[in-house]
Amino acid sequence: MVVAAAAAAVLLFKCLSMAPQADDILQSSLPGLWKYPTYKKQPVKYAEIWMECKKIDDNTDGLWRVHDGFYDFTEWVYKHPGGSDWLSITKGSDITEAFEVHHVTKTAEYLLKQFFVRPATEPRNSPYTFMDDGFYHTLKRKAQPILAQLPPGPSAQSKLCSDLLLAAFLLLSTVANATYNFKLGVLAGFILNFLVVSAHNFFHMKDNFRMYYFDLSFLTSRLYLTVQGKLKPSLRKEDLIPFIPLFVMYAYSGATFINTFIMWCWIVLIASFFFSLNGFNAAHHHPENFHDGDAPRADCDWGICQVDAVKDRTEVNNSKFLVLVTFGDHCLHHLFPTIDHWHLHHLYPVFYETCKEFGITYKSGTVLDLLKGQFLQLAKNEPNRNPPGK
Question: What pTM, to 2 d.p., does this model score?
Fold first, then answer.
């Protein structure tokens, strides 16, 4: 869930990591982003370090900040309908973006008042705005009647697909190990890639066991946490999840442990390759997208900035299954992360309508276009001089 907690504000810090930085001065093109991130120069970076950095820079005195107010959710943490992880991990930080995108209706806004402690005296360390007549709030109002007609939480289809992918992965891995067939291992790794991406669908929902499918890939497992140049043990029970396939393969294949270990490493390697190929070309790395250093819009509405930073893949978005297992409908997922991927397509009519109303261009291209775009973006040595839409 550390990955999930960071995801709501990931665009801001993703942009920072893409921009050329001076040794000691932040050169962000985003207006209002003035503070050089603590721990930015750490040689090894984890999601936990990102959160520690954010807590220091947000300076909330151990409280939670939403817009221009400080709140104390201590007594609410384990009553939170979205699960305790979200509030536990983000204590002591500005959660404005996470609060906005994870609560589509006004209910949470009404409840917020009872936890108010005091107003903030310093501006937020974030350039993003959520004006009531702005793009994002307008889109949320239009989406509310549609979302009210959809079943809450994860869809039965998404849960079934993820569970079947898990079963297929464990079965194929065990058979590949029993026969020592590396071709079957490739197939098992390919399915593991689909499985861990589908787990991303469950990150932003109420705490559930399917979000831990992501850990089967080793992508969120870590045994040590680097803090201020020192290593300290940080072992969690979740760190054992990646080893479950290894134990299953060894227990049910009859193979030696050495052969099992080799096959397991092969499968994880294959899964990592496909995940990287898919993840790096899913939406963000294209010259037409906004990256820090480019000329920004004058309007820093959160929703507009999400649209500017995304280019979707047309082939993927035409299939609900591919949307689930390849980070599809990516722009809508940024705007409505709590909505199950299987249901996101229902929001396109009001999304297109709102884009037209505000003069915003939603970008899409082919899978090949996004693949080429990654390398075109890497080859760029000059920022875009014109703001998005110009």
Answer: 0.85
